[in-house]
Amino acid sequence: MVLKSGRRVLHACTLMVGLMLTSTLLAHLCNNIYRTPERVIVKPEKQSVTLKDTDQFRVFVQNNYPTFLHNVRLSVKPSIESVKVIVEPDVFKVLKPGERTSFRVTISAPPRTPRGRYALTFGISAREIGFRPAERPSIEQLRQVVLKERRARWYTAGSGILAAETLARHGDKIGIDYLLHIINQPGGGHIRDMRGRCIRALGSANCREQIPFLKQLLSHRDGWMRGNALLSLGMLKAERNTIQKFVKERDRFVRTCALTALAMHKDESVKPSLEQLINDRDAYVRVVSAWGLIAIGEKDAVKVLDEVLS
Hints:
Elements: E1 8-17, E2 19-21, E3 25-28, E4 34-36, E5 40-44, E6 48-51, E7 54-63, E8 69-78, E9 84-88, E10 92-95, E11 100-108, E12 118-128, H1 139-152, H2 159-169, H3 173-183, H4 190-204, H5 211-217, H6 223-235, H7 240-244, H8 252-264, H9 271-277, H10 283-295, H11 301-309
Antiparallel strand pairs: 1-12, 2-3, 3-6, 4-5, 5-7, 7-11, 8-10, 8-12, 9-11
Helix pairs in contact: 1-2, 2-3, 2-4, 3-4, 4-6, 5-6, 6-8, 8-9, 8-10, 9-10, 10-11
C-alpha cells in the first residue's frame, strides 16, 4: 500500500500451520523470513510449537522503512474458533527505522479440538507519520530504481511503485509509464493489489493527463479496477458527473468507491450512505467508506481504520 503522511499501512501474510491433533498439538511455523515488500520483516522464533494446554512463541518484527512507524500491532487469527490466541503487548507505540522487537504469542486449544490442518493468519499494521528518507533521492536515482524493477520483471509493492509515484508527481514519463505498465499486467493476487495501488497513484500524483485512461477503466469487468479508478478520479477532483453514475452500482466495493470519490469532491450528501457502509462485512468496503468520511471531516472514522487494519 502506498505510504503517505498519516495514512494507515497494512501488511499481512498468511503462514500455513499444520495442526496434527493427537495427544498434543504441533504447529509448524514457517522458518523463512517473510518480507513484506522488503520493508517490514516478520519472523517466528522457531519452526514448530508443541501444545498440550498452552504454549508460547515470539514473533520478531523489524522496521526497514527509513521512517518511524507508530502504533505497530500484530494480529494472529486462527482459522477455527477453538484455537485461542493472545498477543502481547497489544501495541508498540513507536518502532524506529531499523529497530527490531518481538511480540509474545500464546496459543491454546481444548482437548476436543478436531483433527485437521488449519491456518494462522499473521497481520502487521502500523501508521507511518511522514515519509522522510534520510537523503532526498534525485530524479535520476528514482529513475534507476524504476528501470531496475522493470528489467527484473519481478515486481514488488515497495520501492518501484514508490519511486514511480514520486516521479509521476514531477510529470516524469518514466514514472508514469511504469505505473501504466503495472496496471496493464495480467494476474491476480499480489499483482491485482499492485494494479489497484498504481491506479490510485495516478490520482495522488495529480496525473490529470491520465483522466481519459481512468475513465476507460470504469468499464473494466473487474470491480477492483473500476473502484480504484473512481478513487483516483476523486483524488483528481475530476469527472464528478461520471462518478455519480456509479453510486447505485450493485458491486458494494465499486459503489463505496464512488461515494468516497464524491466525498473527495466535498459532497456531504454521501455521508449517510457511507455511515451505513462503514459497518459492512467486507473489510475493503469499511476502509474505503472510512476514507470517504474522513474526506468530509468525520475524524471519528479514523477509529474504524484502526479497528479494521489492526
